[in-house]
Amino acid sequence: MIGSYSPALDAEAISVAAQLLKRLGIDDVELRINSLGGPECRQKYNNALKEYIGSNIDKLCDDCKDRFDKNPLRVLDCKEEKCQKIIADAPVVLDYLGPECKEHFETVKAILNDMGIKYSVDDKIVRGLDYYTRTVFEFVSNGIGAQGTVCGGGRYDNLIEECGGQASGAAGFAVGIERLLLVLEAQNGAFEAKNEMDIYIGAIGSAGLIKGQGLTYRMREAGIKAESDSVGRSVKAQMKYANKIGARYSVILGDNEIAEDSVALKNMETGEQEQVKVSELLDTMKTKRK
Predict the structure, then answer these.
(1) So what does this thing catalyse (predicted)?
(2) Whether the model pTM is above 0.70
(3) Architecture of domain 197-288
(4) What is the DSSP annotation of 175-226?
(5) At what angle do helices 39-54 and 62-70 cross, to 10 degrees?
Protein backbone atom coordinates (compact mmCIF):
# COMPACT_ATOMS: atom_id res chain seq x y z
CA MET A 1 0.00 0.00 0.00
CA ILE A 2 1.68 3.20 -1.16
CA GLY A 3 1.03 6.89 -1.63
CA SER A 4 -0.18 8.01 1.80
CA TYR A 5 1.36 9.18 5.06
CA SER A 6 -2.00 9.01 6.85
CA PRO A 7 -2.32 6.80 9.95
CA ALA A 8 -5.37 5.32 8.20
CA LEU A 9 -2.97 3.46 5.88
CA ASP A 10 -1.22 1.88 8.88
CA ALA A 11 -4.54 0.70 10.27
CA GLU A 12 -5.60 -0.53 6.82
CA ALA A 13 -2.48 -2.70 6.53
CA ILE A 14 -3.12 -4.16 9.99
CA SER A 15 -6.79 -4.81 9.20
CA VAL A 16 -5.92 -6.62 5.95
CA ALA A 17 -3.46 -8.84 7.82
CA ALA A 18 -6.06 -9.50 10.52
CA GLN A 19 -8.67 -10.47 7.92
CA LEU A 20 -6.19 -12.73 6.12
CA LEU A 21 -5.41 -14.65 9.29
CA LYS A 22 -9.10 -14.84 10.19
CA ARG A 23 -10.07 -16.25 6.79
CA LEU A 24 -7.32 -18.84 7.10
CA GLY A 25 -8.94 -19.95 10.35
CA ILE A 26 -6.06 -18.76 12.51
CA ASP A 27 -7.42 -17.44 15.80
CA ASP A 28 -4.60 -18.23 18.23
CA VAL A 29 -2.71 -14.99 17.55
CA GLU A 30 -2.26 -11.72 19.38
CA LEU A 31 -1.72 -8.36 17.67
CA ARG A 32 1.08 -6.28 19.16
CA ILE A 33 1.86 -2.76 17.96
CA ASN A 34 4.47 -0.08 18.59
CA SER A 35 5.79 3.13 17.05
CA LEU A 36 9.39 3.90 16.13
CA GLY A 37 8.62 7.51 15.30
CA GLY A 38 10.15 9.47 12.44
CA PRO A 39 13.87 9.98 11.66
CA GLU A 40 14.39 12.59 14.40
CA CYS A 41 12.60 10.53 17.07
CA ARG A 42 14.49 7.45 16.05
CA GLN A 43 17.86 9.18 16.15
CA LYS A 44 17.21 10.43 19.68
CA TYR A 45 16.14 6.96 20.74
CA ASN A 46 19.15 5.33 19.06
CA ASN A 47 21.47 7.64 20.99
CA ALA A 48 19.77 6.81 24.30
CA LEU A 49 19.77 3.11 23.49
CA LYS A 50 23.44 3.12 22.54
CA GLU A 51 24.34 4.86 25.76
CA TYR A 52 22.41 2.30 27.81
CA ILE A 53 23.62 -0.76 25.89
CA GLY A 54 27.17 0.55 25.77
CA SER A 55 27.34 0.40 29.55
CA ASN A 56 26.21 -3.25 29.47
CA ILE A 57 27.80 -4.47 26.27
CA ASP A 58 30.11 -6.99 27.99
CA LYS A 59 27.02 -8.82 29.27
CA LEU A 60 25.48 -9.28 25.80
CA CYS A 61 25.74 -12.29 23.48
CA ASP A 62 28.21 -12.13 20.58
CA ASP A 63 25.45 -11.47 18.02
CA CYS A 64 24.19 -8.48 19.98
CA LYS A 65 27.70 -7.09 20.30
CA ASP A 66 27.85 -7.05 16.49
CA ARG A 67 24.36 -5.57 16.23
CA PHE A 68 25.28 -2.78 18.62
CA ASP A 69 27.50 -1.06 16.03
CA LYS A 70 25.31 -1.73 12.98
CA ASN A 71 21.82 -1.16 14.37
CA PRO A 72 21.26 -1.06 18.15
CA LEU A 73 17.51 -1.59 17.67
CA ARG A 74 18.25 -5.17 16.61
CA VAL A 75 19.49 -5.88 20.14
CA LEU A 76 15.90 -5.54 21.34
CA ASP A 77 14.94 -8.46 19.05
CA CYS A 78 17.34 -10.87 20.75
CA LYS A 79 15.78 -13.94 22.38
CA GLU A 80 18.84 -14.87 24.47
CA GLU A 81 17.89 -14.92 28.16
CA LYS A 82 20.91 -12.91 29.31
CA CYS A 83 20.20 -10.23 26.72
CA GLN A 84 16.51 -10.16 27.64
CA LYS A 85 17.42 -9.39 31.25
CA ILE A 86 19.49 -6.41 30.15
CA ILE A 87 17.06 -4.93 27.64
CA ALA A 88 14.20 -5.25 30.14
CA ASP A 89 15.37 -1.95 31.64
CA ALA A 90 16.36 -0.32 28.33
CA PRO A 91 14.91 3.06 27.32
CA VAL A 92 11.46 2.84 25.72
CA VAL A 93 11.07 4.19 22.17
CA LEU A 94 7.60 5.62 22.91
CA ASP A 95 9.19 8.05 25.36
CA TYR A 96 11.13 9.63 22.47
CA LEU A 97 8.26 10.31 20.07
CA GLY A 98 7.72 13.89 18.98
CA PRO A 99 4.23 15.48 18.99
CA GLU A 100 3.40 14.55 15.38
CA CYS A 101 4.48 10.93 15.80
CA LYS A 102 2.56 10.64 19.07
CA GLU A 103 -0.59 11.94 17.36
CA HIS A 104 -0.03 9.54 14.45
CA PHE A 105 0.21 6.53 16.77
CA GLU A 106 -2.80 7.62 18.83
CA THR A 107 -4.85 7.89 15.63
CA VAL A 108 -3.78 4.41 14.52
CA LYS A 109 -4.94 3.05 17.88
CA ALA A 110 -8.22 4.95 17.67
CA ILE A 111 -8.95 3.49 14.23
CA LEU A 112 -8.15 -0.04 15.42
CA ASN A 113 -10.44 0.49 18.40
CA ASP A 114 -13.26 1.59 16.12
CA MET A 115 -12.64 -1.42 13.85
CA GLY A 116 -12.92 -3.69 16.88
CA ILE A 117 -9.43 -5.10 16.33
CA LYS A 118 -7.87 -6.04 19.67
CA TYR A 119 -4.21 -5.20 20.26
CA SER A 120 -1.62 -4.56 22.92
CA VAL A 121 1.16 -1.98 22.83
CA ASP A 122 4.54 -3.72 23.02
CA ASP A 123 7.40 -1.24 23.27
CA LYS A 124 9.93 -3.99 22.52
CA ILE A 125 8.71 -4.49 18.93
CA VAL A 126 11.17 -2.65 16.71
CA ARG A 127 11.27 -4.52 13.36
CA GLY A 128 14.96 -3.61 13.29
CA LEU A 129 15.24 -2.75 9.58
CA ASP A 130 16.14 0.85 8.77
CA TYR A 131 13.29 1.51 6.34
CA TYR A 132 10.61 1.14 9.04
CA THR A 133 9.08 4.38 10.34
CA ARG A 134 6.40 5.07 12.91
CA THR A 135 3.96 2.13 13.21
CA VAL A 136 5.26 -1.43 13.48
CA PHE A 137 3.20 -4.50 14.31
CA GLU A 138 3.32 -8.26 14.74
CA PHE A 139 0.75 -11.02 14.99
CA VAL A 140 2.18 -13.48 17.49
CA SER A 141 1.13 -17.03 18.37
CA ASN A 142 1.82 -18.49 21.79
CA GLY A 143 1.41 -22.04 20.54
CA ILE A 144 4.56 -22.57 18.44
CA GLY A 145 7.41 -21.67 20.77
CA ALA A 146 9.71 -18.66 21.05
CA GLN A 147 9.65 -17.84 17.32
CA GLY A 148 5.94 -17.10 17.43
CA THR A 149 5.62 -14.17 15.01
CA VAL A 150 3.53 -15.33 12.05
CA CYS A 151 2.99 -11.93 10.44
CA GLY A 152 4.85 -8.65 10.81
CA GLY A 153 4.93 -5.27 9.14
CA GLY A 154 4.42 -1.58 9.55
CA ARG A 155 5.05 1.71 7.82
CA TYR A 156 7.78 1.80 5.14
CA ASP A 157 8.17 5.52 4.40
CA ASN A 158 11.89 5.17 3.58
CA LEU A 159 11.76 1.97 1.54
CA ILE A 160 10.82 3.26 -1.93
CA GLU A 161 13.39 6.07 -1.78
CA GLU A 162 16.10 3.67 -0.59
CA CYS A 163 15.36 1.50 -3.63
CA GLY A 164 15.89 4.48 -5.96
CA GLY A 165 12.30 5.67 -6.32
CA GLN A 166 10.55 8.86 -5.37
CA ALA A 167 9.87 9.28 -1.64
CA SER A 168 6.40 8.02 -0.81
CA GLY A 169 4.43 6.91 2.21
CA ALA A 170 3.86 3.16 2.34
CA ALA A 171 2.72 0.40 4.66
CA GLY A 172 2.51 -3.36 4.43
CA PHE A 173 3.36 -6.70 5.98
CA ALA A 174 4.91 -10.10 5.33
CA VAL A 175 3.61 -13.52 6.36
CA GLY A 176 5.71 -16.57 7.23
CA ILE A 177 4.12 -19.50 5.38
CA GLU A 178 5.87 -22.13 7.49
CA ARG A 179 4.81 -20.32 10.66
CA LEU A 180 1.21 -20.24 9.44
CA LEU A 181 1.30 -23.98 8.86
CA LEU A 182 2.75 -24.54 12.33
CA VAL A 183 -0.03 -22.48 13.92
CA LEU A 184 -2.73 -24.28 11.94
CA GLU A 185 -1.25 -27.64 12.91
CA ALA A 186 -1.09 -26.60 16.58
CA GLN A 187 -4.76 -25.54 16.42
CA ASN A 188 -6.20 -28.35 14.34
CA GLY A 189 -3.77 -31.26 14.53
CA ALA A 190 -1.58 -32.74 11.80
CA PHE A 191 -2.56 -32.12 8.20
CA GLU A 192 -4.02 -34.99 6.25
CA ALA A 193 -2.38 -35.08 2.83
CA LYS A 194 -4.93 -35.37 0.04
CA ASN A 195 -4.10 -35.84 -3.62
CA GLU A 196 -7.04 -34.58 -5.62
CA MET A 197 -6.96 -34.02 -9.37
CA ASP A 198 -9.92 -34.04 -11.77
CA ILE A 199 -8.01 -35.19 -14.82
CA TYR A 200 -4.53 -36.11 -15.97
CA ILE A 201 -3.85 -35.45 -19.66
CA GLY A 202 -1.04 -37.68 -20.90
CA ALA A 203 0.66 -37.39 -24.25
CA ILE A 204 2.47 -39.41 -26.92
CA GLY A 205 4.55 -37.37 -29.37
CA SER A 206 4.83 -33.64 -29.98
CA ALA A 207 1.27 -33.15 -31.29
CA GLY A 208 -0.15 -34.80 -28.18
CA LEU A 209 2.13 -32.73 -25.97
CA ILE A 210 1.03 -29.46 -27.56
CA LYS A 211 -2.67 -30.32 -27.50
CA GLY A 212 -2.42 -31.63 -23.93
CA GLN A 213 -0.79 -28.46 -22.64
CA GLY A 214 -3.46 -26.30 -24.30
CA LEU A 215 -6.30 -28.40 -22.90
CA THR A 216 -4.79 -28.35 -19.42
CA TYR A 217 -4.57 -24.58 -19.49
CA ARG A 218 -8.18 -24.14 -20.63
CA MET A 219 -9.42 -26.61 -18.02
CA ARG A 220 -7.63 -24.74 -15.26
CA GLU A 221 -9.22 -21.51 -16.51
CA ALA A 222 -12.59 -23.25 -16.11
CA GLY A 223 -11.81 -24.27 -12.53
CA ILE A 224 -11.04 -27.90 -13.37
CA LYS A 225 -8.06 -29.42 -11.56
CA ALA A 226 -5.98 -30.66 -14.46
CA GLU A 227 -2.38 -31.70 -14.95
CA SER A 228 -0.38 -32.82 -17.96
CA ASP A 229 3.03 -34.27 -18.67
CA SER A 230 5.86 -31.76 -18.90
CA VAL A 231 8.89 -33.97 -18.23
CA GLY A 232 8.69 -36.53 -21.05
CA ARG A 233 7.54 -39.60 -19.10
CA SER A 234 6.68 -42.87 -20.82
CA VAL A 235 2.98 -43.76 -21.09
CA LYS A 236 3.37 -46.30 -18.28
CA ALA A 237 5.09 -43.71 -16.08
CA GLN A 238 2.42 -41.13 -16.90
CA MET A 239 -0.38 -43.44 -15.79
CA LYS A 240 1.53 -44.28 -12.62
CA TYR A 241 1.86 -40.57 -11.94
CA ALA A 242 -1.88 -40.06 -12.61
CA ASN A 243 -2.59 -42.58 -9.85
CA LYS A 244 -0.10 -40.91 -7.53
CA ILE A 245 -1.76 -37.50 -7.77
CA GLY A 246 -5.24 -38.98 -7.28
CA ALA A 247 -6.59 -38.13 -10.73
CA ARG A 248 -10.27 -39.11 -11.14
CA TYR A 249 -9.94 -39.37 -14.91
CA SER A 250 -7.14 -39.67 -17.44
CA VAL A 251 -6.56 -39.55 -21.19
CA ILE A 252 -3.57 -40.18 -23.43
CA LEU A 253 -3.37 -37.94 -26.49
CA GLY A 254 -1.41 -39.03 -29.53
CA ASP A 255 -1.44 -38.38 -33.29
CA ASN A 256 -4.36 -40.78 -33.90
CA GLU A 257 -6.51 -39.32 -31.12
CA ILE A 258 -5.99 -35.82 -32.44
CA ALA A 259 -6.54 -36.76 -36.11
CA GLU A 260 -9.74 -38.70 -35.32
CA ASP A 261 -10.91 -36.22 -32.67
CA SER A 262 -11.55 -39.14 -30.32
CA VAL A 263 -9.89 -40.24 -27.08
CA ALA A 264 -10.55 -42.82 -24.38
CA LEU A 265 -11.49 -41.11 -21.11
CA LYS A 266 -10.64 -43.48 -18.27
CA ASN A 267 -12.28 -43.51 -14.86
CA MET A 268 -9.25 -44.15 -12.65
CA GLU A 269 -11.30 -45.62 -9.81
CA THR A 270 -13.37 -48.15 -11.79
CA GLY A 271 -11.14 -48.61 -14.81
CA GLU A 272 -14.10 -47.99 -17.13
CA GLN A 273 -13.44 -46.10 -20.38
CA GLU A 274 -15.63 -44.06 -22.68
CA GLN A 275 -14.84 -42.50 -26.04
CA VAL A 276 -15.20 -38.74 -26.13
CA LYS A 277 -14.32 -36.11 -28.70
CA VAL A 278 -11.01 -34.35 -28.01
CA SER A 279 -12.70 -31.10 -29.08
CA GLU A 280 -15.39 -31.68 -26.43
CA LEU A 281 -13.15 -32.95 -23.61
CA LEU A 282 -13.35 -29.63 -21.75
CA ASP A 283 -17.17 -29.63 -21.82
CA THR A 284 -17.23 -33.30 -20.82
CA MET A 285 -15.11 -32.60 -17.75
CA LYS A 286 -17.25 -29.60 -16.82
CA THR A 287 -20.24 -31.96 -16.77
CA LYS A 288 -18.47 -34.62 -14.73
CA ARG A 289 -17.47 -32.08 -12.07
CA LYS A 290 -21.10 -31.12 -11.37
Answers:
(1) tRNA(His) + L-histidine + ATP = L-histidyl-tRNA(His) + AMP + diphosphate + H(+)
(2) no
(3) 3-Layer(aba) Sandwich (3.40)
(4) E-HHHHHHHHHHHH-S------EEEEEEESHHHHHHHHHHHHHHHHHTT--E
(5) 140
